[in-house]
Amino acid sequence: MVDFSEAMNEIAPKLAGAINILEAVDKKELKLVIAFTSIIGITGMPGNSWYAFSNENLDNYLRNFKITHNIETVTFAYSVWSEIGMGERMGSTEVLAKMGIGAISPSQGIQEFMSWVENKANDQQIVVTSSLGNLDTWKRAQKPLNGTGRFIDQIVYFEPGVELRARTVIKSNTDLYLNDHNYRGSLLFPTVFGLEAMAQAVSVVTGLDYFQNLVIEDISLLKPIVASSDEGIEIEISALVEENTGERKIRTSISTEHTGFTEAHFSAVFFPDRPRVGSKQVLNPENKSLLNIHPQSDLYSWLLFQGPKFRNLSGIYELEPHKTIFSMKNVNGDTSNICFSDNLKKTFLLGSPLLRDVLLQSVQLLISENIVLPIGIKKWELHSIDQQPKGGLAHCTLTEWNKNTGICNVLYTNDENEVVESITGYTVKSMEPVNNGLSLHELQSLGQVIPEKITAAFSRYSSFIDHKINLIAYKHTIPFDQIKQEERRKIEQFVFSDFARHNFSSTTEIQWQPNGKPILNDEMNISISHSAQILLMSVGKEVQGIDIEKVEFRMEEEWQQLLENNYLFASRQFPDPNKSNQKDLNYTRIWSIREVCMKSEGFIPRTISVDYSEEDAVVFKIVNENQESHILTFPVEILPGVFFMVALKIKLKEPKKSFRQQEEYISIRLHKNLRINFILHLRTAGDFSEKPILPIMHCGWEI
Structure pTM? Predict the structure, then answer.
């Protein structure tokens, strides 16, 4: 309870003082009266009733003074200031901050004062405040936020045209893209989705329903946002409109529960009104045809960690030490339908983040011996956002690389040579070296490097073989299971003819029996196999049988469906070359043996035994009734961490001292009538006539 004298002491300096001064001055010479009130006069504050009364009635007194004397009056109702003023002296700023009430900086307070003194407002009293949290006495009528994006979920604070803070939880079962952005077991919230989230906040705070052109500057990505695989992570997206900057400028950020929503993990500055500049750019690659690099098979895994949803790099035209020109897929709409669970499906403001992510992936092609992640971007310009899903060509230029950080620029154009997006000052940081990584030169020459690796591996085991086998290896631009049989056979004929011209006195064409088995003539035999983009042939006078299989990770249950239990047991007894994928290597080895037997002998082996092994190679003895033959198997790491298993029928030479004979061997005996189910590989469309033919590697051994 406050008594009369205490109340009068509270109102004396401001209200009574103003009345006394204005009664004493000559009204004829007075043009303008400015008074400093307080926001407490509007919102009130517990324990400050007479202070609130004094400020409210000072504003009321001046309103009446203006009418009575026809003199202009302005009152400034400031909230708490930082560094100076009563709130700072009393230590109130920290208490208010915990309530979500921010403090005005002196520079901001002065700037607002000068701005409103020089301009006329719609009301006498001007409220100047920082964020006000959720004051019950400061409520403004707001329209429902209908049609907001997925990331504008729970509103923490919203002042239209000024500031927005909204929170949401991102989880792998609702934000499906997280599962395809898994880096070393960490589900990383992608940069492109962060930009989309911040753009949605900008849309709400400014009232803009869409963006046709947009400039984003000073993008900072210094603190990764990592979602738990079970609980996800709660994020807060904020957007603050800066005033008196000459153009509309919105500062945005994303914070997380891990730092108490106090530190920005991502941040950026949005300029939604800048006009478009430089709308045309011709990207004219020197190579009119694509390089022999199939991104889906050759890059995504060991170099590009992104999962299937993000794999929208379709081809590479140029790959030089400091630049690359590549093509991007034409996607279906904004791809929001595959990014979220059914209850959260909402369209994107900026087009497809999945397609946009390819622009960020591109620098990794130029830094193939280190895995890099983005940490900042100086400027990102988006033009004709509605045209983005159509795909097109993009150009990445590496301007700086010091083995730890790199800087590049990226330009993306559509089929009409219109610039769709441009990125300037894109900075990446090296996270780790790539184990057995390829140099840029090796990446440029994959069509030659991969066949060389296969034939080199075969050469290492030549001492096993007692007859001549010509091994021919070839890498195509796309997987063979995407090519129709007719086109596939054209490729096989081309590859064999190229080999025959250099090795045989007369040319021979491949013929195919009704069951699909390839044949040459009475003197020479051939066997053909392909897996992914790899074609492998063995040619010689003896009966041929060859198989190549990509080593894929499969669960034990999947292998049980493919192989009988006896085969599964045998694979576990093989020599261990201490590889992390040993189980899949062994199971694939068994599968390849069966394929070779079917091709060369026409039967599934009833008895398999390990005769010899050397390094990763294993020689098997196959017995079926009175027939006995041998099959050489060995893995080849064609790309870092990417293995293929090769198996071919051989005539075994008498063992040399270099052979390590197994003290124990595994024997599998199968019943005559045992039925085995095989997988049929269906072939789909492809056009050999448009695919460039790159070098074919072959290797023959005469013992």
Answer: 0.80
